[in-house]
Amino acid sequence: MFEKNFMLGAATAAHQVEGNNVNSDCWALEHIAHSSYDEPSGAAVDHYHHFRKDIDLLAEAGLNSYRFSLEWARIEPQEGCFDETEIEHYRQVLRYCHEKNVIPIVTMHHFSSPKWLTADGGWENPEVAGRFAAYCTRMAAELGDLMEYVCTINEANMRLQLSALIRDMMKKMQNAGEGNVQVGFNAMQENMKLAMAETAAAFQVADPRQVHPFVSECTPEGDLLVMKAHEAARDAMKAKCPHLKIGLTLSLHDIQHAEGGEERAKEEWNNEFVHYLPYIQNDDFLGVQCYTRKVFGADGIVQPDDGMKLTQMGYEDDPVAIANVVCTVAKDFHKDLIVTENGIATADDERRCEFITQALQSLQQCIVKGIPLKGYMYWSLLDNFEWQKGFAKTFGLIAVDRNTMERHPKKSLKVLGEFV
Length: 420
Known about the structure:
single chain; alpha/beta; TIM Barrel; nine-stranded parallel sheet; three-stranded mixed sheet; 15 helices; globular
């Protein structure tokens, strides 16, 4: 059991659960003829209209926190034009959290971006920092009185991880290593030239190479541009609402090494975490996100043994990885930590229950060691749209019949709530 002030809850992302996010870059990319997405998001699980029911189920299970994202593409469908109806929608979500005594942890950007932003160079255009800060400033002015914890950017290091994956893919000309990135991403795509032409048409640009979604390969400059956007947004929101506790989240692996893999493991941890430290020292907390481990040997990543249990996502089923990462992060980042994502994609909810129990018991040992861990958000509250993998991967504590949108809480939701 955790102390009463420990934030225990679950997480979602707007594009993955709300549905009909028609002004986003993801929506555009889902609907080209040769899309890398297995299927389009469509109505997703219609959390947009069912958020009260979903928050009710969370609260009834005993959970006290809910991490969710505001959808920039809904709020600012054209640059500088803010949709008051959509702002009011998120105001209602925040108010309902408070009505249910649920602490909202708000993410300002969770992978999907406005289509107009991505068409104009997206996350490789230096102007993105100012544009993101302007959006965040407006949200602080409109909704800041209802917020306390804010994550500016979800998995701010994801672009660098994808770049490494794509480089590896190009070297091997196959899908090896796809399970080593913690997002639903299809690395290989047939008919690439057709897809590029269709992307140019969808974004109304002459050259598809100027289209830079967040979840795409980045340059070293683009990697640090995300950090500059974070800093600009953090400082702008703090100026507007000094009470806000602001950080970002990082996608991290439990980096381990076999004999001869020490230097490779050290280099990987530097790429995933250490080189971002200068940009988060003024943050109030860090959101830690981990699902599995990576083991490095003398020749690179050591693939799991044939007998190793894997999740639906193709990586190792490793519930204690999250605690190992929290302990490692705490050596260099000495402020509050929140596990903003951790979970398992499986059709076996009994395994999910075991995973949650093992993960939380390991995290309790972090607290015993004096690490300032303030919360844990299971991914995900709902079975949802797992990006390019579609709806086949089931992380959720709640199943959804997508024909009727009826919610079916799983045993794992109750098991998580019992740790409060």
